[in-house]
Amino acid sequence: MLGLMQQHPLLISSMITFADRHHGGTEIVSATVEGALAKTGAKHRYTYREAHIRAKRLANALIGLGIAPSDRVGTLAWNGYRHFELYFGVSGMGAILHTINPRLFPDQISWIANHAEDKVLFFDLSFVGLVEKLAPHLNCKAYVLMTDEAHMPAQSSLPNLLCYETLLAAASPDYAWPVFDENTASSMCYTSGTTGNPKGALYSHRSTVLHVYGAAMPDALCLSSRDAVMPVVPMFHANAWSLAYACPAVGAKLVLPGMSLDGKSVYELMESEKVTFSAGVPTVWLGLLQHVDGNGLRFSSLNRTVIGGSACPPAIINRFKDQYNVDVLHAWGMTEMSPLGTVGTLKAKHDGLPIEKQRETLYKQGHAIFGVDMKIVDDTGAELPWDGKAFGDLHVQGPWVTSGYYKRDGETVLIDGWFPTGDVATIDPDGYMQITDRSKDVIKSGGEWISSIDIENLAMSHPAVAEAACIAMAHPKWDERPLLVVVKKAGQEISRDEMLAFFGGKIAKWWIPDDVVFVNELPHTATGKLQKLKLREQFKGHVPA
Amino acid sequence: MLGLMQQHPLLISSMITFADRHHGGTEIVSATVEGALAKTGAKHRYTYREAHIRAKRLANALIGLGIAPSDRVGTLAWNGYRHFELYFGVSGMGAILHTINPRLFPDQISWIANHAEDKVLFFDLSFVGLVEKLAPHLNCKAYVLMTDEAHMPAQSSLPNLLCYETLLAAASPDYAWPVFDENTASSMCYTSGTTGNPKGALYSHRSTVLHVYGAAMPDALCLSSRDAVMPVVPMFHANAWSLAYACPAVGAKLVLPGMSLDGKSVYELMESEKVTFSAGVPTVWLGLLQHVDGNGLRFSSLNRTVIGGSACPPAIINRFKDQYNVDVLHAWGMTEMSPLGTVGTLKAKHDGLPIEKQRETLYKQGHAIFGVDMKIVDDTGAELPWDGKAFGDLHVQGPWVTSGYYKRDGETVLIDGWFPTGDVATIDPDGYMQITDRSKDVIKSGGEWISSIDIENLAMSHPAVAEAACIAMAHPKWDERPLLVVVKKAGQEISRDEMLAFFGGKIAKWWIPDDVVFVNELPHTATGKLQKLKLREQFKGHVPA
Hints:
Two copies of one chain form a homodimer.
Chain A: H1 13-23, E1 27-31, H2 35-40, E2 43-47, H3 48-64, E3 72-76, H4 81-92, E4 96-99, H5 106-116, E5 118-123, H6 128-134, E6 142-145, E7 161-163, H7 164-170, E8 185-191, E9 199-204, H8 205-216, E10 228-231, H9 238-241, H10 243-250, E11 253-256, H11 263-272, E12 277-280, H12 282-294, E13 304-307, H13 314-324, E14 327-333, E15 340-343, H14 355-362, E16 367-368, E17 373-377, E18 392-397, E19 419-427, E20 433-438, E21 443-445, E22 448-450, H15 452-460, E23 465-475, E24 479-488, H16 496-503, E25 515-518, H17 532-538
Parallel strand pairs in A: 1-11, 3-4, 3-5, 4-8, 5-6, 6-7, 10-11, 10-12, 12-13, 13-14, 24-25
Antiparallel strand pairs in A: 1-2, 8-9, 14-15, 15-16, 17-18, 18-19, 19-20, 21-22, 23-24
Helix pairs in contact in A: 1-3, 1-10, 3-4, 3-7, 8-10, 11-12
């Protein structure tokens, strides 16, 4: 027997419609990216009601450009109001929004745009040069510059170059969002590993709306109509961690920082727009804290920020709380998870614990949002205990988790219905997860696992160490043993034996690396990830001293 | 093109599974309803992990009783841990949980149980006498008393009377929750109007899970794993406003008050279990405030409470805030809405407003939760403006709103896809809704509507008035005109002309009733609702003085 409740598919258009009807006067404020204006710090501001009208104009304009349901529409854009309109105009009319990371190498961008078969590419003014270089390798039928006529370039090599504002002005605001299967693809985002071609996560309307509900919950990002939210995390990166969707769904003010993500710009925008909540990767917050510290400033409205993308150093969490009374939510997720999986909030049981005990919990990546399940497994796939000590491959499950990648039909991605994250983690009895390694970086010594991240963090806590990487080297008896590769701080000295002695008493004896080598720099990817695979190749034949 | 995200139907079993895995150590504490124990204030406590095991035993026991998917299982029970187990054991295995209000007249209960075709009835010890009286009129194949062997009655007229604990002890805890269509019916609740037979709202797994996401949001009930939640609203009333589901889904501690809902019992349980959040109808809070006021007590953990079911008098909202710093969330919903529609939280724009301005907003029933849309329409179905003044029939829409009633297939319930709530309301430009009347009670004078509730509230603010009802009387020129029916306070006097003069300057002149009559008492239903229909009949031929 079926229930007798109304059938409304979960659609992305419902979020902008809701914001219009129930929070129509709430603002979206954007730092402008347009030439001289950008330099003056000029801001664009309008309401959800106005954004909705423009999203509908955009939908009509897309139809005019020949975009049909399920066609891919690419973007190369910063966090701004026109990008926001694309989030709803493109997906709302049934096409697929493909946000591209402009920081990738041009070859990767054209590979991705061609693999996705983007029909039209929307891009910000700052990417004109890049897109002109890419265009000969792309198959787009139109290029839309996200600006007004006044800022269009006098000349350009781009074929069929259109002006966003001109397109919108010519399109009717009368448009009824179509109603269709909630499992329809809504948007896509490619994830680039350190090896192989990028892989496209293909989100659905259902997964996106359910993820918004999960993200807004008090134990996740706790988003409400009392918030002014500034996503520093880019809208080209895993849907800005849901914020471009979740803010209209809860009626939060949205503050979009454009391209200037230095500490001063971020701080001034936060203060002038009374931002209560922000989101980004650790490096952004380092810059912000430096600016605030260096100038004796305070946060007058910011009360919490979510940090993810990579593990957040405890020092950042503590500085935010101790010096500025800002709560850091330490979060973990993946492009393949829409992206949120866990968020580090305390439970009632932590009330009254000494602050240091509370912090031990907050340094972890948090507990799962309702909708996400997770487990850790050993090499044989057997589930490991949640004791905070055992660590294994982290697998996840849920309605906003990837089941496969775009155009890789033959590939088996899931293991028994679970998505293997490629991370290695512990989970404690209260469900708090902590990443200890990437699966491919973990060191397997005598059948037991050693966390390369733990060893690197420890090494980096030595005052003479600027950066450290711990990799596996082959060993005749133990299969693998850890090798530590260190970059010294300028003007600092430390010897191999001093480094090794530093580990004494701090980790299990058999975790201590067999050797230390010093190098001038470590290899990184375009997005700043340590290339351990390259290091492994480099030190393949290394023989310990 | 479909998205490539995992397919997991939204099922009620996922909430107890989630609580077990991610908040397994969090407690459910119940006031016991068992004889001598109840009098001592003894409490039962266990964890979500243990509750999950017992819910799985219950599922096996139900199968043993011959319960098949979609069979209805009735309950007559207070808020307690065994009722909680039924919420998950019954729906989780695919059957339909039918919670029955034991405060209805016995005739109504047997009509409802028979209409639902309940196969088994689970009931608390306090209802043995009631169920013995009902049984000859029912078609249940078993009666399960929710207690242990020690508390089973020595003798009973009930055929096939079983003991809950004995059933569970005999059932295996090994059970895998089945996976099925999320639109499958999960539970039902009858709503009794003032006329006609009760009507059954039939919830689905999908509607229930989506409603939980909506209910947990910061602008709704803001539920988290830091909360200890006490639903005073009964679990037989619209799913205890989602709390029996939402608490496991967010990992909140659940405190179930059993049958003692007097101020002292509620207060002592709140304090001993460090309750942070509670929920109930206005009368419960009046009793609680009386106890707390009268004994010079304080709330040491309670920080907010949701009040709904009927409009909450501003005085209660203010007393909670001014005297005890407890925020009242004024909410509105219906059994047909799972039940939450709107919740009264402030938006960022209210920050810094004078407290009296903020309160004007908080006295309204709140703004819509994402997932619910609403509109007000006039007699012709045309949508009315959101100006806070125009009032019309309130219609709602959303995935947790009823589309029809159980076994009333031929009936058209929706109007253009919207559910007519039977309430009359205003909506202001910020989306805050305020109920002004029931549709059937509104007075239509010269084509314009007059709010009977506004007039009654005003009349009741006169010190000599105990209760007042404003009804329509026929009028040759204006179609209808208001008549005020008043019960005086004991020992107080007020004349017709004094009463009418009291309205002067307080409402529009044409809203002032044409006449006032004084009576000794007003007619009410079994659940305490004013029976205006009866009054209308009584004063059908009334001629104004």
